[in-house]
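$ run holo --ligand "D-ribose" --emit tokens
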Amino acid sequence: MRIAVGSDHAGFDLKSALAGHLAAGGHEVVDLGTDSPDFPVDYPVFGLAVARAVAGGRADRGLCVCGTGIGIGIAANKVVGVRAAVVHDVTTASLARRHNDANVVCLGARISGLAEATDAVDTFFTTAYEGGRHQKRLDEISQYETSRTDPAGATVAGTGDDHERQQPSS
Ligand code: RB5
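-- output --
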């Protein structure tokens, strides 16, 4: 599998260790930076780079690491077609694949130890999507991404949230 990896400074050491592990396991790893733990950088730069590589077909999947996995995951999820999941262990990594067909895995270097992170990543890259009842839900997300329309019959009574809906850009 061709895997794009990226991190900020906080995630650099864990990203490097996981990239080495994946390469040793036969994956083709494309490291999009950052290149040092010593200089603060902004996680959106690297989350977006990994996400674009996946959405653009230059990588099959992505791996993102920051301090918590949260910021870089938020950034990655802004790219249409990307389903980035913050995982903490084998269970969340497995469910992110089986139920959500996540194509980018995000980890927190200040949250997960190397052994736990390695097990989670191995699980993520070897677990298949189950499809079935989950596909309709992923389709609803894709529909919102592309047309900003809600799932059919999705009015949530009493929320008054019409003003919160984003409109497609013209
Ligand atoms: C960097 O200090 C830290 O904020 C970043 O790595 C990440 O945890 C943000 O979500």
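-- notes --
The chain has a mean pLDDT of 94.
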